[in-house]
Amino acid sequence: MNELTQRILTASALGVLVLYLVFESFIGFTVALVVVSLMAIYEFVKLSKMKLTTLWVLFIVLMAMIAIMWLTNFWFMVLLIPLLSAASIFFWSKTLFLVFNYPNQKPNNSEFNKAISLFLLIMPLTFLILLHNETRLLLLLLLIVWGADSFAYFSGKAFGRHKLAPNLSGGKTIEGVIGGLVGVLLITGVWMYFYNESNWGFLLLALVTGIFSVVGDLYESVYKREAGVKDSGNVLPGHGGILDRIDGLLAATPVFMTIDMIFLA
User: Fold this and answer.
1) Which of 176, 125, 189, 124 minimizes the C-alpha distance to 150?
2) pTM of the model
3) 35, 42, 65, 216: least surrounded by Cβ within 10 Å?
4) Reduced to 3 states, what is the DSSP secondary structure of residue 109?
5) Per-residue confidence (pLDDT) for residue 63, from 0 to 100
6) What is the CB-side half-sphere exposure of residue 218 using CA atoms within 13 A?
7) How many Cβ atoms are within 10 Å of 239's Cβ, its own excluded?
8) What is the pLDDT of residues 145-188, one digit of tens each?
């Protein structure tokens, strides 16, 4: 079985599973996110060579945040979510500069920076739990990320001539990214028709979200290049590791939620 066939079969199986959890099982969706988060953390720790001491400190901080939210009947989340969204937007905007200036610009290898990076990488997965209450928006986010990746892959194969970030990814092309964004707009148009949505701002939301999903993909490539590996893992045939599959989603989620809350809510 060639890599493309494996890629299509794996993506199809995962897509069906995720859609079932989105529409039919909040508990299953939450459990799946916890499992995915743990696997993604493991892969990042391995790629970045983070010390276990740093990971434990980060774990304690996260548990403290959860305890504070529980003790305050979760009102703390009202303040925390906008702050985390702002921090995530800043982080990914800074990352945009990093990925297009690599290797002249490299990630800070201090343990503190690794901890902050891991925190801001994984935190968007918790936002997905909040989005589960707005199933149509969660579906749109997933379709944007999946569509950007799939359309970019096949557009790049068919028309790709100019490398997007040759120092990071030999396979990604400018033509592929353009094809991915066109695909995202088409998918969003279908979504708007299906849900009888007339706010054309969703097309702008889709475009910006699609762009940041590419940034997420490239950011993971920085760590793979630094570690000298092709994939973050090998648990997903045709795709590699968990981070290889969700890197775009990690960057896209905070951008999607922030734009939606400020401009479209």
Assistant:
1) 176
2) 0.93
3) 35
4) coil
5) 78
6) 31
7) 22
8) 999 999 999 999 999 899 998 888 878 899 999 999 999 999 99
Q: What is the spatial distance between Cα 146 and Cα 164, in angstroms, rounded to a whole number?
A: 19
Average pLDDT over residues 236-255: 90
- Residue 98 near residue 107 (C-beta atoms within 8 A): yes
Size (the chain), residues: 265
What gap in Å lies between CA 215 and CA 99, rounded to an integer?
Answer: 7
Pairwise CA distance, residues 89 & 106, whole Å? 19
Q: Look up residue 31 and give its amino acid.
A: V
List all residues 6 or more positions away from 54 whose beta carbon is below 8 Å from its beta carbon.
Answer: 111, 114, 115
Return the structure tokens found at 82: 């906008």
- More confident position, 40 or 8: 40
> What pLDDT was estimated at residue 155?
94
Query: How many CB atoms neighbour CB 159 within 10 A?
Result: 14
Residues forming a β-bridge with 163: 173
Instruction: Give the whole-angstrom CA distance, residue 170 versus residue 183.
Output: 22
Q: How many CB atoms lie within 10 A of CB 17?
A: 12
Tokens representing 195? Answer: 């849900």
**Residue type for 38, please?**
L
What are 172-181's pLDDT values in tens digits? Answer: 899 999 999 9
